[in-house]
Design a protein that fits this description.
Helices cover 20% and strands 39% of the residues. The protein is of the alpha+beta class and 176 residues long.
């Protein structure tokens, strides 16, 4: 007779690849139809401001889009059901064998996710702001100018030079 302790030893984590757009539906489908199988995919919270919205919103995004960790008994028959769902999924294999992932790796991922350390977003600030002094690199000479405003189209800026106002591509400028 197999005890619960022996069953836990036989269960191991493996990795499935699927369509990133269907990741949440796949996990929901497995939870509904196969409640004894544990699934996990790490997520992080991203601050974004959708078009037309005044205030930013926080959205959960998967760290590994299109990949789901699954804990199951590979020697049992359940592993076939995971790839025959309406949402196509494929096991990650190395050398023809389904790869397994140690429990400590999943525990480490969960710990980093809980502390918010799994993904760190870097906000880059545009150095080209109105009022900044810039050097404009032209084929015949470099001139200094002041940015009046940024133009959305084609990454251009309206600048004020000693000889008048003009528009210039941002890649032809450097901040002083």
């Amino acid at each position: 007779m197999i005890t619960l302790k022996d069953q836990k030893k036989m269960d191991s984590w493996t990795l499935l690849r699927l369509n990133p757009r269907l990741q949440i539906q796949y996990v929901d489908h497995v939870a509904e139809h196969m409640p004894n199988i544990e699934t996990y995919y790490p997520v992080y919270v991203k601050k974004t401001r959708p078009h037309g919205q005044r205030y930013p919103v926080y959205v959960k995004n998967p760290v590994y889009p299109g990949y789901v960790f699954v804990k199951l008994n590979i020697e049992g028959g359940m592993f076939r059901y995971l790839i025959t769902t309406p949402i196509k999924a494929y096991y990650i294999k190395f050398g023809g064998n389904i790869s397994t992932i140690p429990e400590k790796v999943i525990d480490k991922l969960r710990g980093l996710e809980a502390r918010g350390l799994l993904v760190r977003e870097i906000q880059r600030e545009n150095p080209f702001k109105p009022g900044k002094m810039v050097r404009v690199h032209l084929p015949y000479a470099d001139i200094t100018a002041v940015i009046i405003r940024l133009l959305k189209r084609q990454n251009m800026a309206l600048i004020d030079t000693p000889i008048g106002r003009t528009t210039v591509h941002i890649h032809k400028m450097s901040v002083l």
